[in-house]
Structure formats: structure tokens, C-alpha cells
Amino acid sequence: MRLHISPQFLSLxxxxxxxxxxxxxxxxxxWVDAQGKTHYGEQPPANDKPSEALKLHSNSSFGGDNNxxxxxxxxxxxxxxxxxxxxxxxxxxxxxxxRKADPKEVPLDCASAVRNAQDQADTALExxxxxxRTGYITQAxxxxxxxKLRRAKAETNLASCQSATGRDRAFYQCMSNGNNHFLACxx
Length: 187
Known about the structure:
mainly alpha; single chain
């Protein structure tokens, strides 16, 4: 399976998923390491570093805790809405975490691998459609990336898993582990 989605599109999708889905992003921690680099993760750091449990909220009217604060909407040159810097930073941290495969290797299970990959592609398509509706991406960006996701989803099937070799087999092996995201598996 060859899936080439622009990093900007991916970061945007993750950022907007966080903005619009506060229930899915619970338990996110933020901390700064000894070198001053900011990290994000589902668990606090293993050492005694101080960490901050982030309370994610929505700027929308359908969920989250707005605390009465509403940011003025800013726009990019292409007419799309700008994503707040703090949300961009959080999305980058989440993307980094999603790119790491679970070290526990499981046996190749084509049915699970295909289901996991296709479910994740469906989620990415849903988030992308919402990003388009809410003005965070252009129609052209949506069309391009949605076409790539649909093509990759169509190419991800039992027959291709069962006959896969090399990088494609490694992808299906990786996706057999339900803890892995396709970002960790498309190397």
C-alpha cells in the first residue's frame, strides 16, 4: 500500500480532530525536557519531570468547555481558517506519537490488518470532510488527499495482504497490531 499524504494535510487533520473531538483526546500530557523541547503524550513522562495534563476544549458550539473565551477567526492567504499555534503544536506532538509503532510484534493477521487500515482511512476521510466544511482546507486539497485515501483503501484488501511481500507485507504486519496507526506503518 502506498499512501502519500502531505504532512501539512496530516497535521491539519490531527489538529482539527483535536479541536472538534475533545472526548477522544483525553489524557494528553505536555512537558518540557532538559533541552527545552516540548513533548506531548498519552502518559506523563517516566521521570519526575513536571508535566501538565492538557484540558482540550472546542471553540465550537457543540461541545467542549469554552470558558467564555472565543478567539477571533484568522484566515490564511488561500481563504482557509488559521489553526491556533497551541493546537498546531499539540497536533505535531500527536503526529510524532502516531508515527511510532508499538514494539510488540503480533502475528500477521490479514483480516485485522485490512480492517484496521480501512477503519483509519474512513476516519481520516471523515475528518477531512469536516475540515473542508468548516473552512480549514480548500476543496482542491480535500479532493487530492481524499482521492489518495480512497485509492489506498481500495488497494488494502485481503488478497493483497495474503500475496504481499517486502514493504507491503511489512505494512500489513504492522497494521495487524491494533495499537498501530497507519502513520507508523507506511514506511
